[in-house]
Amino acid sequence: MDNIALIESFGDFKDEKNIDRITLMAILEESLQSVLRKKYGSDDNFDIIVNPDKGDLEIWHNRIVVEDGMSEDDSAEIELSEARKIEPDFEIGEQVSESIALMDLGRRAVLALRQNLVAKVMEHDNANLYERFKDMEGEIVSGEIHHIRHKHIIVMDDEQNEMILPKENQIPSDYFRKGESVRAVVDEVKLKGIKPQIILSRTSPKFLEKLFEQEIPEIFDGIITIKGSVRIPGEKAKVAVESYDDRIDPVGACVGMKGSRIHSIVRELKNENIDVINYTSNLQLYVTRALSPAKISRIEIDEKNSKVTVYVKPEEVSKAIGKGGHNVRLAGKLLGMEIDVFRDIPQDEDVELAEFSDEIDAWVIEAFQKIGLDTARSILEQDVNDLISRTDLEEETIQDVIRILREEFEE
């Protein structure tokens, strides 16, 4: 292979990999220097001229002329008789610049050059890919499902870049088929060896926020900002929003007429129930809004220990806690505080025992109901030993029930 043929072959490679000429020139020169160092022990006495535009490559070996038999370093010195074979009028002490063809370096050296070039171009390509996707962390990308594996799926974008969507980053009800399109947020970009690994997520709160940004122009334009978002993927989410324009209702703008704006987001998240609430710096009010749709009777806030105690009417308990405890758990995450929910019961009122089913097992409630005790006060008025003998329940179980019931009546 001559010099021009090499340049032409890598000119095609440059176009395929979309590498600019200056970068290709630098990679080619660096690869040649590596080959020369292996062959001659040093590349100090060589000039490499690469011109991809013209399709040529020149290698010049520069040596000082010395007397015959006096050369100590073949890469830096040339004997007079050898120099005069190149030009008959060379004298001792002059510099000889000799052009070297690639094939003069030997077949193994040329193969090493090609391997070196390919490796360095791939390294350059990987570095560019890493930087590009690193800058895209937190942004939504789309791709086609290329392969489905047990623990993750492989997604390819339009440029055939490989991305990974792990099972734990998928919404529980996600179901994918090969060839389908999928949207996700770039969750993390890391290096595995020299190759970048692009990790996607559909469960990250950032995915929810970016969907809001795509679907709601006021958020995209910065008129409305998202102050916080929390999710239980596929089940429920809460998003706190604030408007910089007093004329715009941030919640109404996000939800849209009859839910028109938020509908596409809910559909993308597999019918995840999304509560959009109006952010406020008033902590009491923020707690009330975060626990929506429950109506709060009173709130006690312990900012030092990041705890909130909330009292609600018995009929509001299930709303405050939510299905599977989702509502109170998400409200706590949104506030960054621990929330305890208690029934707000006046001293002169009683509560059906069934109202405590979220804290007391059904079989325990049934044991009390069988002996005619079906309200909280009816149990609290009894002697513990009497309750043990009449219900056949363990003392520890009865004491736990009494503790729960007493807490509900304490101010």
Automatic annotation (TrEMBL):
Domain named K Homology: residues: 233-306, 307-385
Keyword Cytoplasm set for record: yes
A cellular-component GO term for this protein: cytosol
Primary location class: cytoplasm
GO biological process, one term: DNA-templated transcription termination
Source organism, top-level taxon: Bacteria
InterPro entries found in the cross-reference section: KH_dom, KH_dom-like_a/b, KH_NusA_2nd, KH_sf_prok-type, NA-bd_OB-fold, NusA_N_sf, TF_NusA, TF_NusA_bacterial
Role of this protein: Participates in both transcription termination and antitermination.
Subunit description: Monomer. Binds directly to the core enzyme of the DNA-dependent RNA polymerase and to nascent RNA.
NCBIfam families, sorted: NusA
Membership in a protein family: Belongs to the NusA family.
Identification of the protein by name: Transcription termination/antitermination protein NusA
Organism per entry: Moheibacter sediminis
Taxonomic lineage of the native organism: Bacteria, Pseudomonadati, Bacteroidota, Flavobacteriia, Flavobacteriales
Gene giving rise to this polypeptide: nusA
